[in-house]
From TrEMBL:
Molecular function as annotated in GO: peptide deformylase activity
NCBIfam families: PRK09218.1
Protein family membership: Belongs to the polypeptide deformylase family.
Name of the protein this chain belongs to: Peptide deformylase
Length: 137
């Protein structure tokens, strides 16, 4: 288990992440391990938060940590205003989110999936995908 330090470097966090490949599975493992070590503080993490500029996110689906490589929102509906915090930033900020999203992504075996998510899980995924796109709340 490798737990990495969470970065607060906004210049690094503002960069758009590169696509993840099979060479980045160790980054995905480290991201999952870091999420689990920060379970009381974070519902999700993106790879750039551990100083890895790759398009990888990890979040909890119930008690289960889930890792997505190259996630992309392909559908969304039900826009609303959310107030969010982030381990990489101080305080909370307002942002636009959607109640329901459909995400296309690869799992740890690089198999492609398309899955629908709602409510809090959808909000967490949107936050982490924003990180992949260099968007800070």
């Amino acid at each position: 288990m490798t737990v990495r330090k969470i970065t607060r470097d906004t210049n690094f966090l503002s960069r758009k992440a590169a696509a993840a490949t099979s060479n980045d599975l160790v980054v995905a493992d480290d991201l999952r391990d870091t999420l689990m070590a920060n379970k009381s503080l974070a519902a999700g993490l993106a790879a750039n938060m551990i100083k890895q500029n790759k398009r990888i996110i990890a979040f909890y689906l119930g008690q289960l940590p889930v890792v997505m490589l190259n996630p992309k929102i392909v559908a969304k509906q039900g826009e609303y205003q959310a107030r969010e915090g982030c381990l990489s930033l101080l305080g909370e900020r307002n942002t636009q989110r959607y109640h329901e999203i459909t995400v296309m992504y690869q799992d740890m075996r690089l198999k492609t999936h398309t899955q629908r998510f709602t409510e809090f899980t959808a909000e967490v995924i949107q936050h982490e995908i924003d990180h992949c796109d260099g968007i800070l709340i």
